[in-house]
Amino acid sequence: MISDRKRQVAAVMAAHFVAAFAALGVPPYFGKMLAVSLGEQRAWLPGLLYVLPTVLTAVSSPFWGRMADRLGARPMLLRAQLGLALAFLLAGHTSSTALFAASLVLQGLVGGTFGASNAFLATFLQGRELRDSLTLMQGSARAALVVAPIAVGFLLPGGDPIRVYQLLFWLPLAAVLVTLGVKPLGKEPTPGEAAPRVEAAVDRPALTAGEVFALQFLFTFATVVTFPYFLPHAEQVPGAGARGMAGVLFALPHLVYLLGAAPLSRRVRERPLALFAGALGALAVSLVAQAAAPSLPALVVARLLMGLAMTVCFIALHGFVADVVREGRAGKAFGWFEASSKWGGVAAGCAAGGVSAAWGLASPFLLGAVGAVGAAVYVVHRMSRTAPAGQVRPAR
Q1: How far is the first Cα of the chain from the last one, in angstroms, to the nearest whole number?
Q2: Do 64 and 139 belong together in one domain?
Q3: Residue 196 falls within a domain, yes or no?
Q4: How far apart are CA 23 and CA 46, in angstroms?
Q5: Are 112 and 80 in contact (CB under 8 A)?
Q6: Do 28 and 114 share a domain, yes or no?
Q7: Residue 393, beta-bridge partner list
Q8: Which domain range does residue 293 map to?
Q9: How do the pLDDT tens digits run along the chain, 396 residues long?
Q10: Is 166 within 8 Å of 41 (Cβ atoms)?
Q11: Do residues 161 and 211 both lie within one domain?
Q12: Are 212 and 337 in contact, with CB atoms under 8 Å apart?
């Protein structure tokens, strides 16, 4: 990727990071905000509000993706960033639970900066460059997921924590300024026009769009189903109950992604289907190992394996979705890609609550393993009907 394109991708990543930082940093503190700032005592409400913007993003993403193909990816990215800022402004000045819920509805309906950022990248990148940039964008999301909850914890106002939104409001506005400064090289495609082809040959697409979205759903389900109850589960493992240790263990797979995505990208690109199937199997093993971990070292090893498996899966999925957008309908493809991820997260959250109440804190890990194995079995079946990974064909 030439240096000018690297600068462009870095700018889009920076814009997404500051927006994701704000969106991902606050939800862990919903319970405190509702209780302290709004006097809300209903114990089930933080969980409902946590999933509300995710559901609405899943519903709205395909629509905004189609609008990006019709009206242009840059306007839709600016819409997402400005919508996030408006939602934060409302949340920061709210005085009731109803208004706070309305701000989350607004965030879900007009947000979606990840899919919008990816669609914007596709207006001036394609093939290998797009695939590698999607891997970098996922790194931006992982970094925000690790850093934001810690940073927001320090920023929370003592007497009225919900006012932290008044500070976070400025972050998506900063992202708007960065996005306005990104000017793709050459002729930027007009709305509805396919992006210019930049490669003579590309990896043979191994999966259809529907298969990519379904596998993204299963992969997201398998990982996110463990999130809600990981901390209390980890605290029960001998040696993992020290203050802050559970949080470090939670962040460990995301840190593995940040360190391993770049060096692993080329290897995964050479054999995407086979390595994707193997990584799904490794993910299942890591989840079972976490469910049965007898000690802190065993749990650390299982989390490291989970991080490695997640990294390979993400890189492979980015390659598959990059193949799907070759007909120039990037907005639609990334809209459905984001929607499948969000629906996977919603299903995971609902399932985690049900199985943990019935069978204990280890059960979400076993359920996630089932989802990962199911996805792996399908990929292996699909490989038997697909040309060898790495075969190339002329770009359309």
Answers
A1: 21
A2: yes
A3: no
A4: 15
A5: yes
A6: yes
A7: 202
A8: 201-394
A9: 456 677 778 888 888 888 888 777 788 788 788 888 888 888 678 778 888 888 898 888 888 888 888 888 889 999 999 999 999 999 999 989 999 999 999 999 987 788 888 888 888 777 778 888 888 888 888 888 778 877 887 888 877 889 989 998 998 898 888 888 877 654 454 554 544 444 433 445 568 888 998 999 999 999 988 887 887 888 889 988 777 787 788 888 988 998 998 899 888 888 889 999 999 999 999 999 999 999 999 999 999 999 999 999 999 998 888 887 765 577 777 887 888 888 998 898 888 888 888 898 899 999 999 999 999 999 999 888 765 444 444 333
A10: no
A11: no
A12: yes
Residue 219 sits in the same domain as residue 164: no
Return the structure tokens found at 290: 């976490």
CB-hemisphere CA count at 13 Å for 343? Answer: 17
What is the per-residue DSSP string for 324-378?
HGGGS-HHHHHHHHHHHHHHHHHHHHHHHHHHHHHH-TTHHHHHHHHHHHHHHHH
Nearest to 26 by CA among 115, 124, 151, 180: 151
As given in the structure block, the two tokens for residue 269 are: 């690109």
- Are 25 and 54 part of one and the same domain? yes
- Tokens 């990982």 map to which residue? 223
Q: Which domain-ending residue is among 146, 180, 214?
A: 180
Polymer length of the chain: 396
In sequence order, what DSSP letters do the residues of 382-394 get, joined into one string?
HHTTSPPTT-EEE
Of the candidates 102, 109, 125, 110, the residue with the CA atom closest to the CA atom of residue 75: 110
Total structural domains in the chain?
A: 2
Distances (CA, A) of 332 to 122, 141, 218: 11, 21, 20
CATH number at residue 125: 1.20.1250.20
Same domain, residue pair 143 and 19: yes
Token pair of 190 as six digits: 């007009």
Helix (H) or strand (E) holding 202: strand 201-203
Residue 126 lies in a domain: yes
> Do 135 and 246 share a structural domain?
no
Tokens of 239: 């040696």
Please state, in angstroms and rounded to a whole number, the distance separating the CA atoms of residues 371 and 378. Answer: 11
Q: Provide the H-helix boundaries in the chain.
A: 3-25, 30-32, 45-71, 73-92, 97-110, 113-121, 127-155, 164-168, 170-180, 209-224, 227-235, 245-270, 272-291, 296-324, 330-359, 363-383
Token pair belonging to 44: 């089930």
